[in-house]
Specification:
With about 400 residues, this protein is of the alpha+beta class. It is built from ten helices and 14 strands. It has a seven-stranded antiparallel β-sheet. A five-stranded mixed β-sheet has the order 10-9-8-11-12. A two-stranded antiparallel sheet has the order 13-14. The protein starts with a strand and ends with a helix. The structure holds zinc ion. The site of zinc ion (ZN) has 8 residues, from loops. Zinc ion binds next to loops.
Length: about 400
C-alpha cells in the first residue's frame, strides 16, 4: 500500500532560491511542452518527451533541474489532458489546457530517484534533492517502507512542504468483528454514533473560521495589487492554513478513535454536505469535515484490517430503528417519536442505530456468519421475516 506524508521543509536562503528557480524552470518546461503539444495534430507522450533534450539545448538553465523532474512535467501535462477529456465525456463544458502563470504552479516532483531522506538523529532530518541540496525537513512520522516519490510544494503562506510517498509491503490481517458502530453525519456539523456519543465541530475550529472571515473582509477593502494587500493575502493564507491544519488534526483523532475501538464502522453512502452550496470559504471548510471524516475512516479501517461499511442512506432518518415503522419528520424536528413501539430518542441517535442495524444486516448477507461475534437484535420484526425468507440462499 502507498502512504503519503506531508512534511515541512526549512530551506536556507540559497536553497530557497534554488527551489524557486526549479519551480520556475519546471513551469517553463510545462508551458513549452504544452505549446509543442498544441502545434501537432497528434503526438504521443513518448514523442513529446523526446522534445525535452532540445529544450535543454535552447535554454541551458534547464540543466540545473534534475532530468527526471523535467520529465515529470510531461507526465503531468498528459495526466491533465486525460482528466480534461474525462470531464468532457461526463458532459462538462471544458476549454483547452491553459499555460500556467506563476500563481498556478506551485509544485515539482522527484519520481523514483534523485532524492534521499537522511536520518540525522536530531529534531530535523535532511532531505537530499539532486541539484538542489540538503534541506532540513521535519519528519513527524517514521517512514517504514521505500520512498517512491517526493513532491515539493510552495504554499501561499510562504512555507515549503514535501509530500513523501512511501510504499509499504505489509500483509493486512482481517480482524474478527466484535464491535460494530453506526455513525450518523448531521447537517449541522454534529456526529451521532449508535453508542449514544454526540460529537460537535470543536469550538476552536469555529473561532478560527470566524477570524478567517474577518481577515478576508479586511483584505477585500485594501487597494488591489498594492503591497499592503499582498501582506494581507499572506496573513489570510496563514490563517487558512491554521484552520485546515486543526481541522485535519481533529478529523484524524476522531477517525483514529473509531478505527481503534470498533471492528466494523458503518456510515451512510450519501454524497456529503456539498448539497448545501456554500460560498463562504470558512463555512465551507467546516462543512467539508464530514466528507473527509468518511474518507479517513475508510482508509484507516482498511489498513487496520477492519470493516468500513457504507449503507444506503435513504430512509435512515425516517425509519424507526426498533420496529421499522416509517416515522416521517420535518428537517427541524430533532426528536424521533415512534407511535408504533413508543421508542423516543434524539433524531440523529435513531439514525445512527438504524445505520448500525443496516450494517449488521449487510454483514450477515455478505460475510460468513462465523466472523460475526456480536449477535444482537439484528432487525426489527418486519425484517426478520424477509431475512428468514432469504436464509436458504445465505447459508
Ligand atoms: Zn418504532
Amino acid at each position: 500500500m502507498q502512504i503519503t506524508h506531508k512534511f515541512r521543509l526549512y530551506p536556507n536562503k540559497q536553497q530557497e532560491e534554488n527551489l524557486f528557480e526549479t519551480l520556475n524552470l519546471c513551469r517553463q518546461t510545462y508551458n513549452d511542452l504544452l505549446a509543442e503539444f498544441s502545434s501537432w495534430d497528434n503526438i504521443s507522450k513518448y514523442e513529446l518527451q523526446s522534445v525535452i533534450p532540445n529544450l535543454k539545448i535552447c535554454d541551458s538553465r534547464l540543466k540545473k533541474v534534475y532530468s527526471k523532474t523535467l520529465q515529470y512535467e510531461n507526465y503531468r501535462l498528459f495526466s491533465n489532458l486525460i482528466s480534461l477529456s474525462k470531464r468532457k465525456k461526463k458532459g462538462h463544458k471544458v476549454g483547452r489546457l491553459r499555460f500556467k502563470g506563476k500563481r498556478w504552479f506551485k509544485t515539482f516532483t522527484y519520481n523514483q530517484s534523485g532524492f534521499e531522506l537522511i536520518n540525522t538523529g536530531k529534531r530535523l532530518q535532511t532531505l537530499h534533492l539532486s541539484k538542489i541540496g540538503n534541506i532540513p525537513i521535519r519528519c513527524h512520522r517514521n517512514i517504514k517502507g521505500t520512498i517512491k516519490q517526493v513532491t515539493v510544494k510552495h504554499m501561499q503562506s510562504g512555507k515549503w512542504f514535501a509530500s513523501v510517498t512511501e510504499e509499504r509491503k505489509q500483509e493486512i490481517k482481517q480482524q474478527p468483528i466484535n464491535k460494530i458502530i453506526g455513525i450518523d453525519l448531521g447537517l449541522t456539523n454534529t456526529v451521532y454514533d449508535s453508542d449514544g456519543n454526540k460529537i460537535v465541530n470543536p469550538r476552536h475550529l469555529k473561532k478560527k473560521a470566524i477570524k478567517l472571515a474577518h481577515l478576508q473582509r479586511r483584505m477585500s477593502k485594501k487597494k488591489k495589487r498594492s503591497s499592503n494587500r499582498n501582506r494581507w493575502r499572506i496573513r489570510l493564507a496563514r490563517q487558512y492554513e491554521k484552520l485546515v491544519n486543526s481541522r485535519e488534526d481533529f478529523l484524524h483523532k476522531l477517525s483514529r478513535y473509531y478505527v481503534d475501538n470498533y471492528d466494523a464502522i458503518a456510515m451512510e453512502d450519501m454524497p456529503i454536505p456539498n448539497m448545501i452550496h456554500n460560498h463562504k470559504l470558512s463555512k465551507s471548510i467546516l462543512d467539508s469535515c464530514w466528507g473527509k471524516l468518511r474518507q479517513y475512516i475508510s482508509y484507516k479501517a482498511e489498513w487496520a484490517g477492519k470493516l468500513y461499511m457504507p449503507v444506503d442512506y435513504k430512509g435512515t432518518t425516517q425509519r424507526c430503528s426498533q420496529c421499522g415503522k416509517l416515522v416521517p419528520k420535518e428537517l427541524q424536528e430533532r426528536e424521533h417519536k415512534c407511535s408504533n413501539c413508543g421508542f423516543e430518542v434524539p433524531r440523529d441517535y435513531n439514525s445512527a442505530l438504524e445505520i448500525k442495524r443496516l450494517c449488521l444486516q449487510k454483514i450477515r448477507q455478505e460475510l460468513p456468519e462465523s466472523t460475526l461475534v456480536e449477535m444482537e437484535s439484528i432487525s426489527h420484526q418486519g425484517q426478520i421475516l424477509s431475512l428468514k425468507q432469504e436464509a436458504p440462499c445465505v447459508s
